[in-house]
Design brief:
This protein is an alpha/beta fold.
């Protein structure tokens, strides 16, 4: 404990933030060894997703020292004189962290620029890609994490998030950084207040003609969930010819405390309650939600007198068909991840285009596919989508605003044809088979239990799951199907069903991704009920295996 106190003293001596200095002094004065160990007994690890963690003092928290060290490590990996753009969301500390990043980068001989106000993540990602002289971008955001968190994403010159070995190289450079109060710092830098390039690109998506000619009376309710997506989304809808969606008033303004939701993630139960209530009152046709940094998109539609939220896989399949119907060329590529539905493979085959599967995360989606292919659509089941047209995708990362525009265009076209999104889902099931997906998360109190469970399954994989024989078992840590090694297990079951199990990258839990594939030779309602029963059987077996 004396060593931790010495680390804390050194931290106090260099920390430029009076709030975190006061927090740490109070911990030391109170003799709170547990709180001290929590902050100094570990550190936030810099990886392909950058940094993300709880705000507070110490190396195991997000704070100004952690951010300045990250910026110095990034600077060491960039060419001197290179241009770097920095964006930030509306979370606690984000603006300050962006300024600290720019100061460190400028002091290291780079040319930083910072957005004047909070921006959606896809605006930053597109900005990096759209300028040939930008060598990297930084986005200060914790996306859909709880209010107490913040984070730090790094984009390379192509506008995509970094992948190995860049993450380990930057991490090693961070480890070599000395005291932050000894770093040379720039005092000023150019400021941008410009999302024009992004808006020009996304509002000109060529996916079926001008919105004003294809269902302008479509009624949409939208929520940014207290995040930063509203203004850019409304501008994009206006430029594309859509009437402005009705914005949930209680969630319209950026608010780092996210007061109306328990967890600011559109996938979480209750997150869309206010939007659904407003949609019901207005008789709306569609509900669209972004997460706080607007890189994810959730959709709900009227169903049986209430509302049904589409799964990420369902929306992914609908958007894929929409993009492929409005693009041409056998060099087109669609990509999804190993934990997402296999439906996209079937859709690609039906349209005669290339298909690729990647590891989890958009950083891998953007690297998938052979040379000479043109990525027009990528998605992951966690409501992340990058939508393109014949130019290819417009953002090399998740883009919740571009996805929202594409959904609105698809729904408007369906409405004009006397159809709904649910009708289109049924059409897909009849053509490709019903691909029903679900998840199971097993939370643990000790990470050793996760390692033990994964080891047990590797040593003695089950012969049956959910009543179906296991036809193939893949240990993804060995690298399969040309993918890099990752800590995961995949079970292919009779009839095309599948289970993938992997440890969460951010929480102490095992995540299980389930898929059941059934032919539709009967009433679609009956087939969906059968699929739900089979998913329940898989969950029951997995819960017993992993308990």
């Amino acid at each position: 404990m004396s060593d931790l106190r010495a680390q804390a003293a050194e931290w106090l001596a260099q920390d430029p933030d009076p709030d975190t200095r006061a927090e740490l002094r109070a911990i030391l004065d109170a003799g709170d060894d547990r709180a001290l160990a929590d902050r100094f007994g570990a550190r936030l690890e810099f990886g392909t997703a950058g940094l993300r963690g709880e705000l507070g003092a110490g190396p195991n928290r997000m704070n100004r020292v952690t951010v300045m060290r990250a910026a110095a490590g990034l600077a060491a990996r960039l060419p001197r004189g290179g241009r770097v753009i920095v964006g930030f969301d509306a979370r606690h500390g984000s603006r300050r962290f962006a300024a600290d990043t720019a100061a460190v980068l400028g002091g290291a001989g780079l040319r930083p620029e910072v957005f004047a106000g909070p921006v959606p993540t896809p605006v930053l990602a597109h900005f990096v890609r759209a300028h040939d002289d930008i060598v990297a971008g930084v986005m200060v955001t914790a996306s859909h994490n709880p209010p107490r968190d913040n984070g730090y994403k790094v984009y390379w010159a192509d506008g995509a998030q970094i992948v190995p070995p860049l993450d380990t190289e930057i991490s090693a450079a961070i480890d070599a950084v000395g005291r932050v109060d000894e770093l040379p710092l720039a005092e000023d830098w150019p400021v941008h207040d410009d999302a024009a390039r992004y808006l020009d690109a996304v509002s000109s998506l060529r996916l079926g003609g001008p919105a004003r000619d294809s269902g302008g009376d479509l009624s949409i309710v939208y929520t940014p969930l207290h995040g930063v997506g509203r203004d850019v989304l409304l501008q994009a809808f206006d430029r594309a010819g859509f009437p402005a969606p009705a914005v949930v008033p209680e969630q319209a303004e950026p608010d780092p405390d996210f007061p109306t939701v328990a967890f600011p993630n559109p996938e979480e139960p209750g997150a869309l309650d206010l939007a659904l209530a407003l949609a019901g009152a207005r008789g709306a046709d569609l509900v669209i939600a972004n997460d706080p940094d607007a890189d994810r998109c959730a959709v709900a539609v009227p169903a049986d007198g209430g509302w049904r939220t589409l799964t990420g896989d369902e929306l992914g399949g609908l958007l894929a068909e929409h993009v492929l119907r409005h693009t041409t060329g056998d060099d087109r590529l669609v990509v999804t991840t190993i934990v997402s539905s296999s439906l996209l493979r079937s859709i690609a085959a039906a349209h005669g285009v290339r298909f690729a599967e990647s590891l989890t995360g958009f950083k891998w989606i953007m690297k998938a596919g052979a040379p000479g292919t043109r990525l027009v659509f990528g998605y992951e089941e966690a409501i992340g989508y990058s939508v393109g047209d014949d130019r290819g995708v417009l953002v090399n990362d998740k883009d919740g605003i571009g996805a929202a525009l594409a959904v609105a265009a698809l729904a408007a076209q369906a409405r004009r044809d006397g159809r709904t999104l649910l009708d289109l889902l049924d059409d897909q099931a009849r053509e490709h088979g019903l691909h029903a997906t679900s998840q199971l998360s097993i939370r643990v109190v000790d990470l050793a239990l996760i390692r033990s469970a994964m080891s047990r399954l590797r040593t003695a994989p089950p012969a049956r799951l959910g009543g179906r024989p296991v036809e193939r078992f893949d240990d993804l840590s060995h690298g399969v199907d040309g993918l890099p090694p990752t800590d995961g297990l995949r079970f292919r079951l009779a009839g095309g069903s599948r289970v993938v199990i992997r440890p969460s990258g951010t929480e102490p839990k095992l995540k299980c991704y389930l898929e059941v594939v059934l032919p539709v030779e009967d009433d679609i309602t009956k087939v969906r009920a059968r699929a739900a029963a089979e998913l329940d059987a898989l969950r029951t077996d997995l819960s017993a295996l992993l308990s």
